[in-house]
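Q: Entry one of two.
A:
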Amino acid sequence: MNMDQPPLRAVIADDQALVRTGFKMILAADGIEVTAEAADGAQAVAAVRRTRPDVVLMDIRMPEMDGIEATRRIIGDAGPAGTRVIILTTYDLDHYVYAALTAGASGFLLKDVTPEHLVSALRLVQTGDALLAPTITRRLIERFAPHDEPQTIAPHRDLSGLTPRELEVLRLLATGLSNAELASRLFLSPTTVKSHVGRILSKLDLRDRVQAVVFAYETGLIAPGEVPGTPAVDRDLHVWDADRLR
């Protein structure tokens, strides 16, 4: 942990007290402050509004209010620069996970995550990055997204605000290409690609690359199964970008 920066602050939302206690011990051991615990979604929303943490570890299936609705409310309150949500799930390919991503979550973790990866994941999303590799997000979307008419684009997320180059970058990003692969494909420097991605997220009011992939599919910019030139995906769904978690 960088001693020059304030400690990362987190809320843990899970209806099982034992799970909350275990995660709290892991985070505290690494200097992460747990500002509150919540046993249901309503408590989680209230805790976030009260303590304004950096990250929420959010279970999906909880009484009173589930994790999806709680995520939607937290993200609606926080805005793009506010609290991030990481979904906790028991299963590695759960349709609830897709719903949570579309509600604004920045990624998901299996509940059997190792302490090392749990801490690394929280620190990753705190920086504004996405926990899931775009290829994994694309697999989720292709399995669970509606395959009929694309959703209506909200005015503040109008694709007409993007330049032709930015549209090209977004479409390729949605196929799962990394910045390095985008740079190679478009004959641009990695720095230029990073700038394009940053402008896309800013113009579309998106939090991270995961949300950009979701957005590209839901607006019809790219259709499920339409992945031109995408490298084959051979990772299991629950394995995220390991290099970025080291």
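Q: Entry two of two.
A:
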Amino acid sequence: MRNKIDNITLIGMPASGKSTVGVLLAKRLGYSFVDVDILIQEQEGRLLKEIIAQEGTDGFLEVENRVNAGLKVHRSVIAPGGSVIYGREAMEHLKEIGIVVYLKLSYEAVEERLGNLVDRGVALKDGMTLKDLYDERIVYYEKYADITIDETGLDAGKTVDMLRAMMEEMI
């Protein structure tokens, strides 16, 4: 484990709290917060759901990989989209510039929190269910994670407290 942490990237399923936890953690550590989905929308001039509708899932994943792989940030908490783990260049870059934390949620909790997948801009392949997506992605999340936080029974505040305590020891 590195003894100096420049950036912290939060990965996990949509609705796992990457943005909510990320903002709170950034405030408590005195870091910047980077919501990569918003960066993608700014750079592309379109909403995520519009990119997916116009370019298809593969086209969206290419855009997401490119934007994440090109991030140049320091002392930041980074919250990429849940599908960032499909981009090898993006994940190699994020691991190179900081530590990767997997916010782990049970399938039932993801299903309960999610709401409308299309409105959220979730990259679902044709015919794929949320359960299929969950099962496919957890393998990648576990592969890339330096640290895993199991959020079962935790609200955002408790997750942030746990993470802050861990990060302060490493910074």
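A: Comment on entry two: The chain has eight helices and five strands. The first helix runs from residue 18 to 29.
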